[in-house]
Automatic annotation (TrEMBL):
Protein name in the entry: Cellulose synthase operon protein YhjQ
CDD domains in the cross-refs: ParAB_family
Annotated Gene3D superfamilies: P-loop containing nucleotide triphosphate hydrolases
Origin species: Roseococcus suduntuyensis
A Pfam family assignment: CBP_BcsQ
Length: 266
């Protein structure tokens, strides 16, 4: 039933990589995990070894109101995957318009998915604000924001702290209490990286779940279409991922989720 959303106010921060590898780490901790790709780039599948020729997916089929169960990929990692699917710009714009016009198009299957009390759902959302994020964020137990240790991320701290990048007004206020932050690609040997990480950590405080070290093994894992804990289980990045997964476990509600319970009852 818990829903963990990975989001970021900007692209290029490694959000999808973290979503995939944290999902795998949570599965290794004993969770039954479904990971969903809401990003039209459709790259989440690559981390799980899904063939490039497999271009189908949940979001591209959404206007047809499919049964989501028929679109689940069983991956070698044990994590279940609902890929976004490949489409063109016309399809992407059409889907955005359909979600704006009828949010229930996505909200209804999400309530069905979250109705399984033994399932942890990990969602990878597009960078910035999106109709999909706007629909699923109210159902989320946690929204995990991914940042890099750089000046741009430090400048975004006010938007992160207030939840403004998720929306505006009352909705932003509601989401802010569920926000957590992960710093990605931290290089402790680089002065600027270390200083930026310290700045973010100082401002975010207890909302910071942890940091993942800059490690070329992460890129190698993606190139091999494998997960970090599979390819390099003793690496620093692997240990960082395990630690963040433990932090997420501690932060997730142990009973019925007060944020998503109202949605599931509808």
């Amino acid at each position: 039933m818990p829903l963990l959303c990975f989001a970021s106010p900007k692209g290029g921060v490694g959000k999808t990589t973290l979503a995939a590898n944290i999902a795998d780490a949570l599965r290794r901790q004993g969770r039954r995990v479904l990971v969903m790709d809401f990003d039209p780039q459709n790259t989440l599948r690559l981390h799980f070894g899904v063939p490039l020729t497999d271009t189908g997916g949940f979001m591209v089929e959404l206007p047809k109101r499919p049964d989501w169960r028929d679109l689940v990929r069983q991956t070698a990692s044990g994590v279940m995957l609902l890929p976004h699917g490949s489409g063109d710009i016309r399809g992407t714009l059409g889907l955005a318009h359909a979600l704006e016009r009828d949010p229930e198009l996505l909200a209804a299957p999400m309530r069905s998915i979250l109705g399984d009390p033994n399932l942890l759902v990990v969602a990878d959302t597009p960078p910035g604000a999106s109709h999909a994020l706007n629909i699923i964020a109210p159902m989320a137990s946690l929204v995990c924001t991914v940042l890099l240790p750089d000046a741009t991320s430090a400048a975004l701290i006010p938007d992160i702290e207030s939840g403004r990048f998720l929306g505006a007004g009352t909705m932003a206020t509601l989401f802010a209490g569920r926000l957590r932050v992960v710093l990605n690609a931290v290089d402790p040997n680089a002065r600027l990286s270390r200083a930026a990480a310290e700045t973010v950590a100082r401002h975010i405080g207890p909302r910071l779940l942890g940091a993942v070290a800059r490690d070329e093994l992460v890129a190698e894992a993606l190139a091999a279409q494998r997960l970090v804990l599979d390819l390099a289980p003793t690496s620093q990045a692997a240990e960082d991922l395990r630690e963040i997964a433990r932090g997420i476990e501690a932060a997730l509600p142990s009973g019925p989720d007060p944020f998503s319970a109202g949605w599931g009852a509808r």
